[in-house]
Structure of Actin family:
Amino acid sequence: MSAAAVTVTDDATRPGYKTDVEALVFDFGSESFRVGYARDELPRVNVPSWVGVSRDGVPDTGPLERGAGRANRITGAASSAAKYYVDVTTLCVPRPDTEVYSCMKDGLIENWDLFEQILDYCYSKCLLMNSDLHPVLFSESPLNTRSKREALIELMFEKYNVPAIYFCKNVVLAAYSSGRSSAIVLDSGATHTTAVAIHNGYVLPNTLVSTPFGGDFITKQCSQFLANSNIQIIPYYMIRSKQRVQDKEQPIWTCKNVLPKVSYSWHNYMCRSVVQDFQQSVLKVLEIPNDERITNFPQPNYEFPNGYNQTFGNERFKIPELLFNPHQKMGGATVSIGQIIISSLGKCDKDLRPYLCNNIVVTGGNSLIQGFPERLNYDVSVLAPANTKLKVIAPSSSTKRRFAAWHGGSILGSVDVFHDKWISRQEYNIQGRSLVDKLRYL
Ligand SMILES: Nc1ncnc2c1ncn2[C@@H]1O[C@H](COP(=O)(O)OP(=O)(O)OP(=O)(O)O)[C@@H](O)[C@H]1O
Ligand SMILES: [Mg+2]
């Protein structure tokens, strides 16, 4: 990536920012941060939103508002020894007294201290470049607040000295990724599943319908299922050796002799990644509910880190079925994924509905469960009025589907006419955080 001369518009009051340098696109979610250069097909970096923190440094685990200051939270001489472990290669090394925290909550930035650690890591260890060279385009949740956006603008201009910044809703970017500026976007990520209508590149906020059932819910259900089936989750870091055993036989493995006394949160994080691997490898959604052919479907054998392995039959369909066929015991809103779409469509202008029905864009990691788009297509066709023309658009490439918002940002960031929309550093120097008003219609 060349760092060619930056040509900023010389009149500071003139909006926009022009440069020969590619923009950086940031798409952050509760599970991971995706970062890369505009015009690329895929992000260069996909870092977990979870950070390991040595216990000395961060005594308080509550939300940290930007501006509250790290000094307010870290007290005493030992605090200066705070250490952060970002990304899997360091985060997954067992260490004593290291807790794991997420910097996100429900898709919004919650702990700015940890958020900065991830940004520092992306710039200095992954992208290997100075942050003052590249304009930055951030995706944001449709539920993002004005104060969080202001805080991010301040952080990026004052700490990272970026030349220009812009924000776009992640669902709009996901629609762009499929070549559409109008669509219903169904985003099933880690913490929630939402459906919302996009019209000519703008979110129609009153059409947003959300449930708290996404990938994290499925991970919890898998953990419960494995516990009820007496399948013990032993994370890789504990295992010194294992032997091959037959299906459902007691595992034969040995534990590492020397292990540091790890924290409960870190151990849980490692168990969670084992369960997530099970979730991603084994689960499948029935393409048609109550499909009688279920017994003829392939039954995969899955091996856990300690060598225990089992063939999973009908069980693999039961857990994700909860997304499409929820029951009261789940708590929260018990609407199915198909109903979310229908309900979002119902909140749209009547004239728009036929077009939107024909443009249902599916994105988010949880939508990668096998059979998800096919089942969604079936359920929506049953719930929609008769003779409605439906089209579910879900890229077959798993990375394209999961990173659709990032990819849409990559497209938007590379469009020349878009450069008029950037907020430049000069504008920020004159107007400060109030510049957020310029973005109020997004
Ligand atoms: N191949 C897969 N099969 C099933 N689930 C998957 C697969 N890959 C990822 N997931 C799940 O998708 C979720 C992460 O999705 P995604 O990356 O869209 O979330 P996010 O954008 O970081 O979070 P959020 O949208 O909640 O803020 C996790 O729960 C993960 O277990
Ligand atoms: Mg997301």
Summary: The radius of gyration is 23 Å.
